[in-house]
Design brief:
The chain has one domain. It is mainly alpha-helical.
Length: about 70
């Protein structure tokens, strides 16, 4: 999760908290499935983009773009 533009300190803190919890969950999944974090992150990223509604903004290799 990220901020499209610089937000308030509260928004950044919430983003950091969500990302930390997500990382912990991905680490647990990687351990349980005996796979790499990169594989778990890549699959989760693909699923997140697929589940994002048209018109929402997603971040890819080229930066932020509308889906």
């Amino acid at each position: 999760m990220g901020l499209v533009s610089s937000g308030s300190g509260e928004a950044q803190a919430l983003t950091n908290e969500v990302n930390q919890k997500r990382r912990q969950a991905y680490e647990a999944i990687a351990r349980r499935n005996r796979t790499s974090m990169n594989a778990v992150e890549a699959l989760a990223g693909e699923k997140a983009v697929q589940n994002t509604k048209l018109g929402n903004v997603v971040e890819g290799s080229g930066g932020w773009a509308k889906k």
